[in-house]
Automatic annotation (TrEMBL):
Transmembrane segments: none annotated. Pfam families: Glyco_trans_1_4, Glyco_transf_17. PANTHER family: BETA-1,4-MANNOSYL-GLYCOPROTEIN 4-BETA-N-ACETYLGLUCOSAMINYLTRANSFERASE, BETA-1,4-MANNOSYL-GLYCOPROTEIN BETA-1,4-N-ACETYLGLUCOSAMINYL-TRANSFERASE. The lineage of its organism: Bacteria, Pseudomonadati, Pseudomonadota, Alphaproteobacteria, Rhodospirillales. It comes from the Bacteria. One of its GO terms (cellular component) is membrane. Gene3D superfamilies: Glycogen Phosphorylase B. One of its GO terms (biological process) is N-acetylglucosamine metabolic process. It comes from Niveispirillum cyanobacteriorum. This is Uncharacterized protein. Keywords: Plasmid. GO terms for molecular function: beta-1,4-mannosylglycoprotein 4-beta-N-acetylglucosaminyltransferase activity.
Length: 1034
């Protein structure tokens, strides 16, 4: 074969030039390719502007002036480098008379003037073939110029042979790279050098001593220094600390220099079509940090760290500095892993045989008649054509032929498997997995065909180094899920890759891919709550409220304690419910009935898990009538508005719900809400009076006005039309105001000093209401009797709900006989009537009946039977110095339902003060002062063990205590709530949600030295009694 290369830039060079001077990438590639073809026996001529024509290492070098069109047309093939003007290609086409194959081999981007005439179809038709140096470049040309695909081929570049053998097989590559590291810039100056110089101070600040060698100029294009427009940039290199400007150098000098370089620092802002600079750096064992532009992902083949390019060069410099510092530090810290990585990179670059392999592919292509024929449409014929590129490992040509076969018959599993292996060899990881997935859907592939490639493919897709879009990468992982999920190891690797992809998608604010990746992980990790919540966040961002809450339900059923123990997560769940309700208000009528049912069902579970009343959502899920469903929705939203304090909005929503006329109870609910709104307005007015009065902004008489208003509001709470939830909330607020007013009357705007103890010392009274907490009473007495003088135990003959009850302490007095001399037993037999909170206050106020012997300075602790101070805290209260604070607010660890379930939030309700202050303010009011933060806080002061003892004791307390709204809500959905409780007490987890009012933000803890010693001693007994959450709930 007689082959000629024509360089239309007419530069002056021969294949020997590279040994002594810098040369451009296209010209270097032509020389190396020509030399390799000549060694294969091809008659090769290089036509350019050489001033030294003649035979050079087997390549005939000719000056273009001696090679007219008529001579050029006599070659078997003429490869025109770069571009060709319209007249010249027209003349060549006419002269060749189809005897000489005219091939355009260009490394230009499609927007360059040298190839602009390809927009002319006549010009395109005069070329027999187009050779490109990357897949990206080919697709760019086909898209811009509509070139016929069958005439567009890929022949890639390779590193110079002088980059081969830089490291002996037994030599450690990283040993040749000094630290602090040396960086290099080897491309043309206009492609990113200015950005790099701006980044260098940041790099050197992070890794002191880092140096930069700049091997860049326009000499490679034979532009003399005096005409080089970038001399000012070179001068800037010379004056920048840590930068050494070397200019353009020959290939051997470049190879020797790069041997010591740690990384090619190439913040490129130009879309490369191939980039020989990167290939050479890879061959020299350099890390590569550059830009995700053009063909660089192909050239990097997964070894380069590629960054997106921001429009602002200043930002680009900062981001590049961060990236290269991270890459350098990572590899420096992992020397063994880096050595393996760099050795594989050097082998991939293949400097020793790279141009020989490319020459074999060129020769195979040029010699094959099929290369010059229109594409055949018979699969058998295309299969035959595969043999030619396969013989020379021409993966690009093989991939093209496989794609043609599959376009004719997509059901050929074998071709999909072949294509997978080709794409994997090309580091097209996402494409390879998609091809394997297609093959697997047709027939099960032999694991031997893919297992060797799989780690690299998964890692490549996870990292995204090939520049593949996130959407395609997650599609690739999903494609191989059926293949990998059956084996533990591969399922784990797939899960790791999907997690990485989910993290990247979140960082990119790509909710679609985030959701898909998280769902893939969820499929592979059935016990992962976090990934389901992450998926829910993505679904929420996409406006899919049903899926959002269904994913939240999945997380709750896996580990409700883990989900609900976080205040932030609970806030997120509330936010999702709010968003779903808002969306339903505007879009319920247009929503598909099945989607609506899904959404309401999920809302019910999440609401229940948060301790809310889920009955309305559950009714809405079952409702068939659109108006009935909307009325229930309005009631749901109204309830949430009430909880948020937006009672006017609540009233309006209930008015709308009542307007449908289907619900006989709607009028009563609306009236109750209106009553609550009016009461709230009175409470707001009362709060304003107290605030302004305490801050001396009102005239004398404000205390009497506030007291009168307290009496009026309390009287309103006696009305039968009150909602129990509202009554409980308003009672707490009212009692807080009453407590503050009582306190202010005694103390004024400051804290009264603690009175001095009597000569015999201050006594300590531990006072509490008692219902039936016999086991906790035993712990309390054992812990505190060494430091407490008297226990005032108040026991009533009525529950808070008004039901007669036994006197449990009186009936079990013998059990506590050893403490009898310290126990003052107060029995409350009188019932004040009214509602539950009135009885609760009356019974606590009866503590004063047991303090008849207390002196003014004696310390009184006000609590409930299940609220127990640590002995050391109680002892401190006894010995507080005179003139110190007179009111204390101990904060307790609160354990609910089981001893080993604890809230992260402290329990604030216990108060301690001298008797004289308790007498004046009131025993019941003291607790409300503590709740308002009045008094000196004592952190970690004790324990609140509440709702202990299993489901029957839970229900008994529910029926007895003052929060009547809980029993009402329980009854709204009795069977469901009973089932929820049974599940919870069997597992210690809110798998089916909680009943309204339950605390769900709990975490499992060990029963350790932080618990009372008496309790720890009875650990086994409490476990048998069901006071410890089962291990299955862990």
């Amino acid at each position: 074969m007689r082959l000629a290369f024509l360089d239309t830039t007419f530069g002056d060079y021969t294949p020997q030039t590279m040994q002594a001077a810098p040369l451009g990438g296209t010209q270097s590639a032509a020389c190396y390719l020509a030399l390799a073809l000549a060694r294969m026996g091809v008659d090769v001529t290089l036509v350019n502007g050489t001033s030294a024509p003649g035979m050079v290492d087997g390549v005939m070098c000719r000056h273009h002036g001696t090679m007219p069109v008529s001579v050029l047309a006599r070659f078997d093939a003429l490869v025109v480098m770069g571009g060709c003007d319209g007249d010249s290609i027209r003349n060549l086409h006419v002269a060749s008379d189809s005897r000489c194959r005219l091939v355009l081999w260009t490394q230009h981007a499609s927007d360059q003037p040298a190839v602009a005439n390809l927009a002319d179809p006549d010009t395109v038709n005069r070329w027999d073939a187009f050779i490109f140096v990357s897949r990206w470049q080919r697709e760019d040309y086909i898209g811009r110029f509509r070139l016929p695909r069958h005439r567009c081929h890929i022949m890639r570049n390779a590193p110079a042979p002088c980059f081969a053998g830089l490291f002996a097989p037994e030599e450690r590559i990283i040993a040749a790279k000094p630290w602090p590291p040396i960086l290099a810039y080897t491309s043309t100056p206009f492609r990113g050098l200015e950005v790099l110089l701006a980044a260098m101070p940041l790099v050197r600040a992070a890794i002191p001593g880092t140096g930069l060698k700049v091997l860049s100029s326009l000499e490679a294009y034979q532009v003399p220094l005096e005409r080089d427009p970038y001399t000012a940039l070179y001068d800037r290199c010379r004056i920048t600390e840590g930068v050494e400007y070397l200019g353009g150098v020959s290939q051997p000098v470049l190879a020797a220099t790069l041997r010591e370089v740690a990384a090619l620092a190439y913040p490129n802002r130009y879309a490369e079509t191939s980039c020989i600079s990167v290939m050479e750096a890879m061959a020299a064992g350099c890390l590569v940090v550059s830009s995700r532009l053009g063909a660089l992902p192909e050239t990097g083949a997964g070894y380069a760290r590629l960054l997106s390019v921001p429009p602002d060069p200043v930002l680009h410099a900062a981001q590049f500095a961060d990236a290269i510092v991270a890459e350098l530090n990572r590899h420096h810290a992992q020397s063994d892993g880096s050595e393996r990585y760099l050795r594989a990179q050097v082998q991939h670059a293949d400097a020793e045989q790279g141009w020989n392999r490319q020459a074999a592919r060129w020769l195979s292509f040029l010699s094959d008649n099929a290369s010059w024929q229109p594409p055949i449409q018979e699969i058998a014929g295309i299969l035959g054509q595969l043999k030619r590129p396969a013989a020379v490992n021409d993966h690009d040509a093989m991939a093209d032929l496989c794609a043609r076969i599959l376009s004719l018959d997509p059901a050929r599993a074998g071709i999909w498997r072949v294509l997978m292996q080709i794409q994997a060899a090309q580091a097209r990881h996402a494409d390879a997995l998609l091809s394997l997935g297609r093959a697997g859907r047709l027939e099960a592939p032999d694991p031997a065909e893919w297992q060797g490639w799989m780690p690299t493919m998964l890692a490549g897709v996870a990292s995204g180094t090939d520049g593949t879009p996130l959407s395609l990468r997650i599609a690739a992982l999903r494609a191989v899920r059926p293949l990998l999920s059956g084996e533990v190891f591969w399922a784990g690797q797939l899960t790791i890759a999907a997690r990485q992809l989910a993290s990247q998608a979140r960082a990119a604010n790509d909710a679609v891919v985030t959701l898909s990746a998280c769902l893939l992980v969820a499929e592979m990790a059935p016990d992962d709550t976090g990934i389901r919540l992450a998926a829910a966040m993505a679904a929420q961002a996409l406006g899919d409220h049903a899926l959002t809450l269904e994913l939240a339900v999945q997380a709750l059923r896996i580990d409700s304690a883990a989900v609900l123990s976080s205040r932030q997560t609970r806030g997120v769940l509330h936010g999702w419910l709010d968003a779903a309700e808002r969306a339903l208000l505007t879009g319920l009528d247009a929503l598909d009935a099945n989607v609506a049912a899904r959404l309401f069902t999920a809302m019910a579970v999440v609401t229940g898990a948060l301790g809310g009343d889920a009955s309305l959502a559950r009714q809405a899920a079952l409702a068939h009538e659109p108006q009935a469903r909307r009325a229930l929705l309005l009631r749901m939203v109204a309830a949430r508005h009430r909880l948020a304090g937006r009672r006017a909005d609540q009233v309006e929503l209930l008015r709308q719900a009542a307007s449908f006329g289907h619900d006989p109870g709607a009028g009563h609910r609306l009236g109750t809400a209106r009553m609550a709104l009016s009461q709230r307005l009175l409470l707001e007015n009362l709060g304003a009076i107290l605030t302004d009065g305490a801050n001396d902004r009102l005239e004398t008489g404000w205390q009497e006005q506030a007291a009168a208003l307290i009496g009026q509001i309390e009287g309103l709470l006696y009305l039968d039309g009150n909602d129990e939830s509202e009554r409980s909330a308003m009672w707490a607020t009212l009692r807080g105001y009453d407590a503050f007013l009582s306190w202010f009357k005694v103390a004024g705007p400051g804290m009264p000093p603690l009175p001095a103890p009597p000569p015999g010392g201050r006594k300590l009274y531990d006072c509490f209401q008692f219902y039936n907490e016999l086991d906790l009473l035993e712990i309390r007495l054992a812990e505190l009797s060494p430091v407490v003088d008297h226990f005032v135990l108040v026991e009533a003959a009525y529950t808070h709900a008004g039901t007669p009850k036994p006197l449990y302490y009186a009936e079990n007095r013998e059990r506590f006989a050893r403490y009898a001399d310290k126990i003052i037993h107060v029995v409350v037999e009188d019932d004040p009537g009214g509602f539950a909170w009135v009885r609760e206050a009356h019974q606590r106020q009866a503590i004063l009946r047991g303090l008849t012997q207390a002196g003014p300075a004696d310390m009184v602790i006000i609590s409930d039977a299940d609220e127990i101070l640590r002995p050391e805290i109680a002892s401190q209260l006894r010995s507080v110095a005179a003139e110190g604070p007179s009111l204390f607010a101990p904060h307790l660890d609160i354990h609910l339902y089981f001893l080993n379930l604890r809230s992260q939030e402290p329990w604030i309700s216990v108060a301690a003060a001298p008797f004289d202050l308790v007498r004046q303010v009131g025993a019941n009011n003291m607790r409300y002062l503590a709740k308002q933060g009045i008094g000196q806080t004592i952190p970690a002061a004790g324990w609140h063990f509440t709702w202990m003892g299993g489901i029957e004791r839970f229900l008994a307390k529910l029926d007895a205590f003052a929060h009547r709204e809980m029993i009402d809500s329980f009854g709204n959905d009795g069977d469901v709530n009973r089932a929820r409780l049974e599940k919870f007490f069997a597992t210690g987890r809110f798998e089916e949600g909680a009943i309204p009012g339950m605390w769900t933000a709990l975490q499992r803890v060990s029963i350790d030295d932080s618990f009372p010693a008496t309790l720890r001693a009875r650990h086994a007994q409490f476990a048998e009694m069901g006071w410890i959450a089962p291990e299955s709930g862990a």
